[in-house]
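Need C-alpha cells for this chain, all 187 residues.
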Amino acid sequence: MANVTLPYTLANGNTADGGQVQQNFDAIVTQVNGNLDSDNLASGAVTLAKLATDVKVIENVYTATGGATIPKDETDVNIISQTITLTTARYCLFLATAQYLNAGDDDYGYYETIKDGTSTLVSFPVFLPEPKTVSTSNWYYSAVSFHHYGQLTAGTHTIYLTISTSNLPASDGEVSTARLTIIQFAF
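Here are the C-alpha cells for all 187 residues:
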C-alpha cells in the first residue's frame, strides 16, 4: 500500500469536526496494522541486525562427506547422498566439492552432478589438464567446487552428488574427498 493519505486536512483557527479527526486516525491505524510495505520504509531502514532474534534467514544446514572408487565408463556413480524433509517448499543452496584422482595415461574429463532423486539439478563438466607424479605413476587430479540454487517442494528429498565417466578414455579413478552441503532458507 502507498503512503498514508489523510482524508481531511485540519487547519488552525477552525473548529475540528470529531468525525473528520476520527477518520484521519482510522486512516493511520489501517495503514500501520498490516498494510505497511516498501513504500512506507526508507531505503536501508530494515537491516538484519534490527530483526527480532526469532526471525530466521537460514532454516537448516545439512552436510555429508564421502569418497569412492569410480570405475571407467560408469554413469551416475553416487558419491554422497543426503536426505532432507521439508514441511513446505523452500529455496536451497546446494554446494558440492570433490577431489578426483585418475591413474590413466591420458588426460580426460568427467561430469559431476547434483540430483534430487533421479532429477538432475545441475551437471558440471570437469577436465583434468595435467598429470601429477605420484611414486612412478602419473595421476590426473582435479579439485572442483560448484553450486546450484533452487526451490524444492514440500516432502522428502534424497540429494545425490554423482560422477559419470562413461565414454571417456580413462582407467578407474578415485574421489578422495567430497562434500555436499545443503543450505535450506526460511523462504
